[in-house]
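User: Hi! Is it possible to get a structure for several chains at once, not just one? Here's what I have:
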Amino acid sequence: MNQPVSMIPDLLQIIPEVLLAGSVCLTLLLGLFVKKNRSVLLAVVAATVFIVAGIYILTSWPHKPEEIFAGTLRVDDFSAFFRVLFLAGGLLTLFISLQKENATEYVILIQAIVLGACLLSMSMHFATVLVSLELVSLCSYILAGFAFNKPSSEGSMKYFLMGTVATACLVYGISLIYGISGTLNFSSSQFVDALMQSKSVMIAVAALLILAALLFKLAAVPFHLWAPDVYQSAPTPVVAFLSVVPKLAGLALLIKIVLAFNLFGRATVDWRMLVAGISIVSILAGNLSALAQTNPKRMLAYSSIAQAGFLLAGVATLDPTGIQAALFYAVVFLLMNLLAFTALHLFEKWKSLPAMADFAGLGRVAFIPAFALTMALVALTGLPPTAGFTAKLFLFSSLWASWSDSGSTIMLILFIAGLLNTVIALYFYLKIPYYLFLKETPPGTASIKISITGNFLLLILVIAVTWLFLNPGLLMGWINRITFVL
Amino acid sequence: MPYLSLLIFIPVAAALATLLIPARYTRAFPWITLGVNMLQLIIFIAMTLHFSSGEGLQFAEQHAWISLSLNTWGELQAEYLVAVDGLSFPLVGLSVLIMLIATISSWNVSRSRKGYFALLLILNGAIIGSFCALDFLLFYVFFEFMLLPMYFLIGIWGGPKREYASIKFFLYTLLGSILILIVMIGLYLSVQSPERANEVVHTFNVLHMQHLENFIPGSWLDATSTGTWRLWAFALLFVGFAIKLPAVPFHTWLPDAHVEAPTAISVILAALLLKIGGYGILRFVYPVFPDGAVYFSDWVAGIGVVSIIYGALNALASKDLKRLIAYSSVSHMGFVLLGIASATTEGVAGAIYQMVSHGIISAMLFLIAGVLYDRTHDRLIENYSGLASHMKHYTAFVLIAFFASLGLPGFAGFIGEVLIFFGAFQSHSYNNLVPLWMPVVATLGLLLGAAYYLWTIQRMFFGTFAVRASYAELNDLTAREYAMLLPLAVAALLFGILPQLLLDFINPFAETFTGTWFSLGINTNP
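Assistant: Yes, the chains can be modeled jointly so their relative placement is included. Here is the combined structure:
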């Protein structure tokens, strides 16, 4: 095993994570001294760390794939891509939630989840997978209860109970795999060879158990049941964060695991069929359930289940084009989901809006948040002029290409089912703009004071979502250079 | 001069500028919009002077837009490619005219004028953009871009059932555009650009899609492949545009949307948005899938005939004046399908002519309905009689519009319908695409058209004066109403008496359109 001395060069490879871990400790200490009304300072420190870490990763792009810490982690473009996404997600979340109560704990939890997600995206070894996944999960459970009221605790508890089962599945799956292959490193040739030689049904069982844990993180059917309650009851900025960072962390790992277990197409399980099936069911279940919702956050919860289905659709192709489309989709998803929740949060700061009908006529009193929310929902539907359309275009193109190449009917079904679902999705996504603009303002509605910084953040995100529509080439060009070696 | 880009983006830029003006300057917004319309009119007149008919695509502008690698799948290439030819140029002109009239008609909109005129300007750019785009992705973006402004324009400023109507409109049209999107993705992945011979460049360029040799051998939509995928693609694409047209049985969104929309928006819907359906069939469906067009020719013509008869029967039964006009649109757009299905020069030219003439006449019809609604807030035909005695000028315009719409010789509608019938009857002996009984049955539609219009005139305008609706004053036309009706009446007459004015543009296109079919050897009975 490694000598302590040789850890220094490895640590240098993950300076951003070291910074994050240091910042978690620093926040803990600062929390003791900083007064309650100065708690913004904590967020500023954390935000600075996010920015510095992000810039560090971006400047060292492109990465030569390099295994560190005895092959448990790997620094490459794929993980760098996701790490930047997670840092951006954390940064934007801090922007919208400079709260005073429990600020220390809040900032620490956010940083810890980002740290866990970053490590997860680099993991090549089931041990680091388990540790970093648990770091993300445990902190998420606490964050979900951060409204400190009964529904929030209930949501947190549900999340925790189901999450524990998911973790148990993961551990059980890992133990089976270790029994079969004798290694926990799923990128090693030993792992691939052992799985190829073994004809045991246990491989499929183990793979499915591990997959279950990841689907739980993604909130994909059939492990999505926690999402509506958590989304509805947790504070909106927390939901914004949870709907993006842990989900995409799950996606990052899922891509690696699926590619590993696919064994270059020689696996006994038909992964294409499996992932595509989950994708179709998630899209359908998410959209159909969303139709009936009246609470905006619950509606967005079901929407994010459907979006998980779309993210999975790219993975289902099992080829680089599809996965690149999924990565593009991930960026756009992060932007549009954060945009939607930020706008929602700004409205909620003014008054609580438990039903979509409460948005009646608010478009006239607060145009910019209403406009931004509409743009976010249009993007989630997948209509121009937003990047949501571009992302769907790339995604469905890759599905067609995959169908053309492989001739597997499931890809065609996914292609058509996904596109037709856009029409269903439009119906519920349009509900909020419908109330915002089409309904009359109820008499006695005071004008809303939305902070300038809030409006500014919204406009930045709107511009980002439109800019990626007008000029997707730049981002896609970067994604194109990511290789998916195992 | 980038004429087309100016036409498309001046209104979009003006819409953005409008947003910066505080909402309290309510009088500025219609003036800005009118200024944009005037500017567009000037640009269009300048283009007319430079347009040489018979030269195919002109005023082309081509810029790279999206270009990225698809790994093993080669490269994706979407361009900003706009140009006009004999098909799109008259429709662009129609758009410029109608948007101008729509602005005048919206002059007195009372609530949130800033939002209204900003959306109107965005809609303006999107409509002209869809007529000019020759890159499928660009077209699709403009096409979708129309939906959101339209949804809000109907939903916020519409009639009592506006919310239902607007969401129905949006869902139906989106379903149509999803069908188009499905085929679009399949198409661009099956087509490679001939510009770079050694590389596989998947292009959205419609002109490349129209050449069968650009299809990648072995791809799903390759013309030489034996499967039925190309027929499926034709059917999906056709239905996608038929929803927009609308053709029976995909028409049910139209009466609701038309009736609930404010007058100016009804005008735009009928005069321009429906045309995008017909335009799409002529620009995308038929040239890209000529084999499907032959295979489904009797279906296309049949749907046309059913639309003609069914639309006319519904119009006959309508009690609401606006609903009557809406159904008459369904009937008239059926003629367009019949003309296209014949795939003869006369039929295709007639279809385009019919689109332009219907654009002018239906705009007039909806304005007329709006004039009455403004005064009484009632559109039920049975509540009026003897209007001619109190509103002489109004009645004169009503008579012009009704007679023009029922296809009286001397008006634009007649030319289009006659050409379509020439084509449809000829098709039987010429290429055998349209069975002879179909145009025979379609003539019944003319008869029904005369019936519902003449009956309406008799009920509403003749007899003793009586109005069963509360109204302040039943004045005759104001100067503003004159300003919007007169140009349309003149145009309807002008294109009825001097059809060469339009046919000079349309005919060369129709000839090349059918000519390419000959060269493909599609003609079954030469």
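Residues 270-486 of chain A form one domain. Chain A touches chain B through 35 residues (CB under 8 Å).

User: Great, thank you!
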